[in-house]
Design a protein that fits this description.
Largest sheet: 7 strands, mixed
CATH class of the largest domain: Alpha Beta
Number of helices: 10
Strand content: 25-35%
Number of domains: 2
Order of helices and strands: EEEHEEEEEHEHEHEHEHEHEHHEHE
CATH topology of the largest domain: Quinone Oxidoreductase, Chain A, domain 1
Structural class: alpha/beta
CATH superfamily of the largest domain: Medium-chain alcohol dehydrogenases, catalytic domain
Number of strands: 16
Distance between the termini: 21 Å
Shape: globular
Bound molecules: NADP nicotinamide-adenine-dinucleotide phosphate
Low-confidence stretches: none
């Protein structure tokens, strides 16, 4: 059976004006694939990098890496899902900005009944990222309750999940965000301190908050604008976890500066290495489902757009006008 679907695609890299709604044919799933009909789609900053060409791709490119919906059919060899299952995913290849798609089953997980589709679509990519950052990207000296970590853009999609999860782990998360209202939001979601990095010197504030010691880990998804001062926020043997480039890519650096700043470590992580097999994907998803179903982490959806309003959704995200998660509704 073949069916048609709307799919948001780009035919050239560029601004939000490049986003067009095409009609595509969707067939039966092949071996290891499923066909899923979306009820909600997650918006992520990586979609912007792919649109602009910061992460180059061949054209046309169907955008979107997160979604939730109902499985319509499964291909040969798929045993963890069946037609009729509610499911959600963060996955490659992109293409979730659509009504229905065929995709690899590996990263698609059954969605617990207690989690609605919008929440499922909002939380998979951002929640699995918060999971691997806080649980699997740790400094050599470990992380213990009471330790300070610094988390940039903490009022965003990944950020508000991380604030809550860090609190559940007993960590003292120092949040940065781009307005006083966003700082308030981060504090309400479990950050121990919040710094408006547009009006305050975050390095001076971090030194002040930590009694001059610095933090054990910096989680930095802002990139260019925060990189240099972030390294100086680390205490000796601290870990810089770079995981994004919202302000542009972090600059190149000579390894010698890591010695000068206290034998610090730097890593650049991507979720897709962590979820590169089915077992680990499910294990990480189960942990995420547990903290969401138990209420330790609430998934805050502050923006909802119709799929046809995808340009406005991208504009808002890039203008730093969003907080928490954003979903597109087909
Ligand atoms: N490597 C990975 O595995 C991985 C996975 C998921 C997400 N990420 C990264 O994590 C970050 C958060 O993702 P998200 O989807 O949840 O987005 P988001 O945090 O909801 O939105 C990005 C935020 O970045 C901040 N920002 C700082 N400088 C900016 C600038 N010049 N332009 C635009 N935004 C700027 C803004 O918050 P303020 O106004 O508060 O500064 C903005 O709201 C992104 O950088 C994303 O690429 C990485």
């Amino acid at each position: 059976m073949s069916t048609s679907s709307r799919a948001v695609r780009i035919h050239a890299h560029g601004g939000p004006e490049q986003l067009v709604i095409d009609t595509v044919e969707v067939g039966e799933p092949g071996p290891g694939q499923v066909r899923i009909r979306h009820h909600a789609i997650g918006l992520n900053y990586i979609d912007v990098y792919q649109r602009t060409g910061l992460y180059p791709a061949t054209m046309p490119l169907a955008l979107g890496m997160e979604g939730a919906g109902v499985i319509e059919a499964v291909g040969e060899g798929v045993t963890h899902l069946k037609a009729g299952d509610r499911a959600a995913y963060a996955a490659n290849p992109p293409g979730s900005y659509c009504d229905v798609r065929v995709m690899p089953a590996m990263n698609v997980c059954k969605l617990p009944d207690a989690i609605d589709f919008e929440t499922g679509a909002a939380m998979m990519l951002k929640g699995l990222t918060a999971q691997y950052l806080l649980k699997r990207s740790r400094p050599v000296e470990g992380l213990a309750p009471g330790d300070f970590v610094l988390f940039h853009a903490a009022a965003g999609g990944v950020g508000l999940i991380a604030c809550q999860w860090a609190k559940a782990l007993g960590l003292r998360l120092i949040a940065t965000a781009g307005s006083d209202d966003k700082c308030k939001l981060a504090l309400e979601h479990g950050a121990s301190h919040a710094i408006n990095y547009r009006s305050e010197d975050f390095l001076a504030r971090v030194k002040d908050i930590t009694g001059g010691q610095g933090v054990k880990v910096v989680y930095d998804s802002v990139g260019k604008d925060t990189w240099d001062k972030s390294l100086d926020c680390l205490r000796p043997f601290g870990l810089m976890v770079s995981f994004g480039n919202a302000s542009g890519p972090a600059p190149a650096f000579a390894p010698g500066i890591l010695a000068a700043k206290g034998s610090i470590y730097v890593t650049r992580q991507t979720l897709f290495t962590h979820i590169s097999n089915r077992e680990r994907t499910q294990q990480m998803a189960d942990e995420l489902f547990d903290v969401v179903v138990s209420g330790q982490v609430k998934i805050r959806i502050d923006q909802r757009f119709a799929l046809t309003e995808v340009k406005q959704a991208h504009e808002s995200l890039e203008a730093r006008a969003t907080t928490g998660c954003t979903v597109l509704l087909p």
